[in-house]
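Exercise: predict the fold of this chain.
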Amino acid sequence: MRKIFVSSSVKVPYSKVVTGFNQQLLEALSPAWMNLRILKYDGQQPGDCFTMQLGTKPFSARWEGKVIAAGSTPGSFWFEDVGIQLPFPLKFWKHRHVVRKSGTGAVIIDIVSFHTGSSLLDWICYPLFRAMFTARRKKYQQYLFE
C-alpha cells in the first residue's frame, strides 16, 4: 500500500472552495491525456456515488467510487471516497479530500492510499499518481478563480 499526500494553498475564500467541490471541478482536475468522461456524479456525502469512463474505446476503463465518510467543523470540510470498480492495475483506492481555512484563503489536501496487488507496480505507479495530484495545485487555483 502506498500513500500520497499533496497540500495545495489557494488564494480563494474558504467558502468558495467548499462550494466549488463539484462535478465541474473534477472534470477540470482531470489530466487532458486521460480523456475522462463523468457518467454519474451524486456529490460528496456518504453514500453518494460516481462513475467515470477513462480513455477511449477500445482502450477505455470504468472507474466507480463511493463516498464513505464526510464531515466538517468551523473552518474545515472533508470527505473520503473509495474505489468500487477500478481500472487496471489498481486493486484498492481511497482518497480523502480536506479543505481548511487558511487566512483569507484555503488549503486543499489530497490524501490517497492505493495498491495494485504488487509492491513493484505500486512503486512504479507512485511517481505518476503523485505527479497527477501535484499538477492539481495550479488547476485548483485556475478553476476556483473563474
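Check your answer against the key: The radius of gyration is 15 Å.
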